[in-house]
Amino acid sequence: NAGVTQTPKFQVLKTGQSMTLQCAQDMNHEYMSWYRQDPGMGLRLIHYSVGAGITDQGEVPNGYNVSRSTTEDFPLRLLSAAPSQTSVYFCASSLTRGQGKTTQYFGPGTRLTVL
Amino acid sequence: AQKVTQAQTEISVVEKEDVTLDCVYETRDTTYYLFWYKQPPSGELVFLIRRNSFDEQNEISGRYSWNFQKSTSSFNFTITASQVVDSAVYFCALSGTQGGSEKLVFGKGTKLTVNP
Q1: What pLDDT does residue B98 have?
Q2: A39 Cβ under 8 Å from any chain B Cβ
C-alpha cells in the first residue's frame, strides 16, 4: 500500500490564483480530512469527509472547498489564494466507526506559499 | 469545546537524559481518544500511540512510555535515554465522540532537541 499520498509537495501561487491540492489513499479508508499547520499553531482541521459524497467543515474552512466523489480521493481546492493561506497542508485518512479504528494516518504534506 | 494544551514550547536535553513531554486536555465527552504524533525535521507526521478514555494503563514501548491520568486530564510522554534521532516536534491530540470521533484537536506541539 502507498498509504496516503499528496501532490504537489511544494507550490507557489500568486494572490488570487486558484489551485487544487490532491490527496489519495489506497487503504479503503472511509474517513479523510485536511489540516493546515502554521508555526506555533499545531494542526487545524479544514474539512473532512466520512465517506464518498459526504463532506463537512472543520475549524478553519473559509477559502477552501472539498468534494469526495470516490473513496480514494479527497481534493482540496483554493478558490482565490491569499497570503494567509501560506501553510503546510496535511491530508489524513482512517477507518471509521468501531473501537480501535480511529487512528488517522497522515500524508507527507504540501508546502504552499502565496505571494 | 475540546482543547489540548502542551505548555512546553521547546525542550533541549543532552543525549541519554530522560525527558517528559506534558499534555493536558479538556473534553466533556465520556468516551474519547488521545494520541501522540512525532514530526521529525523531514516534516511528516508519524503516529506513536492511541489511548482510549477507558484504558488508564500506562504503556511502554522501548524507550517510550506514556502516563495517562484521567484525574488530572493528562497524557504525558516520556522518552528514556534520549537520542539525537528523537529530535522532533511532538504533538498531543484528542478526538471525542461528539460531532464525530475522527476529528482531531491538536496541541501546539513541543519541539524537542536532543544534543550529542
Answers
A1: 61
A2: no
